[in-house]
Amino acid sequence: MNNRIKELFNIDYPIIQGGMVWCSGWKLASAVSNCGGLGLLGAGSMYPEVLREHIQKMKQATTKPWGVNVPLLYPDIDQLMNVIVNEGVQIVFTAAGNPAKWTGFLKAHGITVVHVIANGRFAKKCEEAGVDAIVAEGFEAGGHNGRDETTTLTLIPHISRLTTLPLIAAGGIGTGRGMLAALSLGAEGVQIGSRFAAAEESSAHTAFKNCIVKTGEGDTLLSLKKLAPVRLIKNAFFEKVHDAEIHGASIKELQEILGRGRAKKGIFEGDLTEGELEIGQVAALIDEIKPVKTIFDELLSEYRHVKNDLINNATFQL
Length: 318
What we know:
Mean pLDDT: 94
CATH architecture of the largest domain: Alpha-Beta Barrel
Distance between the termini: 25 Å
Helix content: 40-55%
Largest sheet: 8 strands, parallel
Strand order of the largest sheet: 1-9-8-6-5-4-3-2
Number of strands: 11
CATH superfamily of the largest domain: Aldolase class I
CATH topology of the largest domain: TIM Barrel
Shape: globular
CATH class of the largest domain: Alpha Beta
């Protein structure tokens, strides 16, 4: 059976690694691509020359397809886009903004464009902008998130009714069982972030990876909704933000609490007290730091096992 996500990216499995800030460097992205998925460099935490360096190292580390994730709220985005074009990147995922801003520019340079959305309103905008595929990301996801708090279970079938574009599910997916569920909801591929954030090849600090492993049910919460919603592990910094939000803090006051470099402090430098620790709810299912190859093998094995159970087990026959 044809799978449009596999065909679009020329990959073996419709598994995309999320382009997470401070986690998704060339080591992680190339490892995912070499396993048959699609690795993404997380440009949101890279200066233009740093992105260029990672792109060049990707070219040396893999001959398989890969891409770059670009948050559209990046302050000097034109510089990033020029690096992407000049270095011959073939696939770009855009997020956190209007797809109309850069899709035309990227498509004019022969680049495959995918846009990340969190609600149905942007599905039409994606079609009008001419993107090649959509990532629909549910409220369970880590990092920047949608304000509507629509779960993946609801979002994927909703978006699949609104568009004929190839659809990738994201948010709360970190197991083979979760992959199967997402595909049954109408997606043709999955984007997995948090599970790969805790991989050995992730560029995140070891202290942050260990924190992910220890994160349990209810240990994360969507925060900073007045700025750019982001799911955070509950720590001292989170409590400051949460208390300020409860007391009606203004955007300016929240910006002052956030300051600069807060995500770098937590994810890349390992400050588990004052850092911004971005991760998805699926962290509660992650209990060990593993190599990408092991994670990939486990995803595929569980997917196949559960699928066969559904086909053969009389319990599931209605």
